[in-house]
Amino acid sequence: MPVIGFGTYAPETYPKRMAEEATEIAIRAGYRHIDGAYLYGNEAEVGRAIQKTIADGTIRREDLFYTGKLWSTNHAPERVRPALEKSLQDVGLDYIDLFLIHTPVEFKPGDEVFPTDENGKMIFHNTDIRDTWKALEACKDAGLVRSIGVSNFNGKQMELILNAPVLKYKPVCNQVECHIFLNQSKLLEYCKSKDIVLVGYSVLGSSRVEKWIDQNSPKVLEDPVLLDVAQKIGRSPAQVAMRYLLQRGIVVLAKSFTAERIKQNFQVFDFELSAEDMKQLDGVNKNLRYLSLDSWKESPKYPYHDEY
């Protein structure tokens, strides 16, 4: 898995064609890890960018690492493979490099992405996550996916899978929100102890969609300590925020729809932060989670009640 990935999520207000344009720019700039998901609603557009850059010789399929995700209405074992096949069809690939359970929280099975009752409350469901995992293992055995993992899981939820009576393949990674305000030190330590990769999203802060994010929350890229370090070493705040996570052994997903920033965010391999810089940035942690998903708290599988 390339240590820097290009994130393809965009708020609903963005035209879907922007995902295609940005993904193409990213691949041409050197990104080889593309992070997608059924939920984002743009796998077809992302796929077109991939197909275009393969067709013109910019990349070969085997050089590209594509991540897809199983949405929460598809945890029932019989829905897992059809969901994966839908992503394969949309993105135009014969196999996906990595397929993740998008979140441990499960919704009522069906085609409605966010099923709600007459009062507007989410309708949750409760498939044993180990049964979902078995169905993913079968997809790997069938050659539809190379690796399988999880996203937004806490340590206890990962243990459920790791301690399953019959475990064929353990999760290769856990993709979670991670940035200087939520540095995930305990979850990182846990994952390293199990030889599981931690992948960070929202590493530059969130896209601040009003529906999900507290608009009064501080912005990562405006943090004074981050700005001081960036100014001192002559780098952008985004480059420093990413480098901080990379040096801790975290795979970083960066997201932008601006060509200049897409290219700039990839230029993080030719400098290092000093031990003093790293210590300063460690001190910025506030355990601040942008994506707390409060409307999901009634689910028995809500992951953020636990510390990690």
Automatic annotation (TrEMBL):
UniProt-annotated binding residues for substrate: H102
Keyword Acetylation: yes
InterPro entries named among the record's database cross-references: AKR, Aldo/ket_reductase_CS, NAD(P)_OxRdtase_dom_sf, NADP_OxRdtase_dom
Active site: Y40
Highest rank taxon of the organism: Eukaryota
Site-annotated residues for Lowers pKa of active site Tyr: K69
NADP-dependent oxidoreductase domain span: 4-285
Listed GO MF terms: oxidoreductase activity; structural constituent of eye lens
Keywords: Acetylation, Eye lens protein
Family, as annotated: Belongs to the aldo/keto reductase family.
Full protein name: Rho crystallin
Species of the source: Pyxicephalus adspersus
Lineage: Eukaryota, Metazoa, Chordata, Craniata, Vertebrata
